[in-house]
Amino acid sequence: MHPLEQQFASNKAVSLRISNAVAQLQFIRPDALNTMNVDFWREFPACLQALSACADVRVVVISSTGKHFTAGMDLAVFASLNGPEFQIEASRRAEMLRRWVLELQACFTQLEQLRVPVLAAVQGGCIGGGVDLLAAVDCRYASADAYFSIKEIDLAITADVGTLQRLPHLMPQGLVRELAFTGRKFTAQEAKACGFINAVYSSPVEMNEAVMALAKTIAEKSPLAVHGTKEMLNYSRDHSVQDSLRYAATWQSGMFHAHEVMEAMTASMEKRAPNFDDLQPNTPKLTR
């Protein structure tokens, strides 16, 4: 058993399994539609932090158990906003609420900041916070029964954890606005047609097998090159072409690794799998 599996063995909302350099984060509350309860908001970011510091994980796959991927935020989390700690002077309550939302946002932003690719495999409903999560991963896959909904509008809430900020980079602007204004369901087939979903599979079993095979393929590549590719894509999304080209040149000047290039070429000629070193583990920040 991997040490991180032991560390998170008592999790109640999200399980962690690691095999062959692929980490599987799986939602494990199917009877509650895998809603994002207090346990989720504690366990999920903790797992991501641990994976970010891990040296021998090269891909993360997020999946679920039961009929639905997730029904989004657990209502008990919303109810907590009426707790005694929020019954304070208005401006201070507003400041507390703002910090609370920023903490939720930071949870999914970690998915973008991980050094490794994050793949998501979705079956059944993916609602509200589930769409926030999906918008932050690198690649999305779905079974034919999957559907998605920016449900916050039906709860009289402006979606605030990433959907409205990230989806316009993934889907046509007009469609994003329609979905956000109406909260209507859009199917896996529609999501694939507009580019949100990479591929649709006939069943969750077929989907999960295909996604794990894809994760294995990525894990065999140079982790340094994969990390650089993710970094460049994220930077290019948020900057001009010229700025992104200059950043790529600077990155390459420090990260180009001739030894790994030779290993890749030699392995190809010898018709074998290349052997690449893991990235170095992230170390805690130095403090005074």
Automatic annotation (TrEMBL):
Carries keyword Isomerase? yes
- Report the EC code(s) recorded for this entry: 4.2.1.17
For this protein, what is any one GO molecular function term?
isomerase activity
Q: Which Pfam families match?
A: ECH_1 (PF00378)
Which controlled-vocabulary keywords does the entry list? Fatty acid metabolism, Isomerase, Lipid metabolism, Lyase
Please give the InterPro entries that the UniProt record associates with this protein.
Answer: ClpP/crotonase-like_dom_sf, Ech1-like, Enoyl-CoA_hydra/iso, Enoyl-CoA_hydra_C
Q: Say which domain of life the source belongs to.
A: Bacteria
In terms of SUPFAM superfamilies, this protein maps to: ClpP/crotonase (SSF52096)
PANTHER family assigned to the protein according to its UniProt record, in alphabetical order: ENOYL-COA HYDRATASE
Q: What is this protein called?
A: Enoyl-CoA hydratase
